[in-house]
Amino acid sequence: MPNKKNFKFDPRVKDGYFIADYFKKTNEIIAKYKPNQIVTMQFFQRKDNTVLCGIDESIALLKYAAHNFDDLKIWALNDGDIVQPLEPVLKIMGRYQDYGWLEGMIDGILARNSSIATNSRRIVDAANGKPLLNMLDRADYYSTLPSDGYASYVGGFRTFVTEAAIEYIDDAEVKAPSGTMPHALIQSFGGDILEATKAFAEVFPNNNLLSLVDYNNDCVNDAVKVANYFGKKLWAVRLDTGANMTDKFLEENKDKYPVDAKLNGVSEYLVTEVRKALDAAGHNHVKIIVSSSFDAEKIAYFEANNIPVDIYGMGGSLAKVNIGFTGDAVLIDGKPEAKVGRKNIESDRLKKVE
Question: Are residues 346 and 265 in the same domain?
Answer without folding.
Answer: no
